[in-house]
Design brief:
- The structure is a homodimer.
- By secondary structure, chain A is an alpha+beta fold.
- Chain A is built from two helices and five strands; from the N terminus they run βαββαββ.
- The first copy, chain A, has one domain: Alpha-Beta Plaits.
- Chain A has a four-stranded antiparallel β-sheet.
- The interface between A and B is medium-sized, with 26 and 26 residues.
- β5 of chain A pairs antiparallel with β2 of chain B, so a sheet runs across the interface.
- Chains A, B: This is SCO4226 family nickel-binding protein.
- Chains A, B: It holds the Pfam family SCO4226-like.
- Chains A, B: InterPro entries: SCO4226, SCO4226-like.
- Chains A, B: It comes from Streptomyces blastmyceticus.
Amino acid sequence: MAKFMDVHHGMKGITAEQLAAAHKADQAIEREEGVHFERAWADPKSGTVYCLSEAPSAEAVKKVHAKAGHPVAEVHAVPLSV
Amino acid sequence: MAKFMDVHHGMKGITAEQLAAAHKADQAIEREEGVHFERAWADPKSGTVYCLSEAPSAEAVKKVHAKAGHPVAEVHAVPLSV
């Protein structure tokens, strides 16, 4: 297991309710891929959403997001944190 | 005060020690601008570092990072989080 930060673009105007719903949709199916989504932060102005997860691979993160209906192209392993 | 996520690029090969030192350098002077750096995550492979802060403005985040020796161009307000 490792930590990943993924970045969604094009989510301009996202609301707190939409962010919470997307996060719940991820968490509802994340176990299928052995992923756990911990946190997410959104900038409705630029349409950027950052998700922090613990997962076996970047592919697993992508699979969960895709199944939940919000595919992501940019997933970075972040092995270091403070 | 608001939450911000800033993104550094070009930090390929960053070590845990370097990340911790950079975070400490920020925290040592952050009060001058009313900023608080909460967390940071790094991907040594792609050279990307994400910093989460609480600050009065994106400009204040930029000032602290620049003074501490690691200027950043990309700072997003992230008013929404889960």
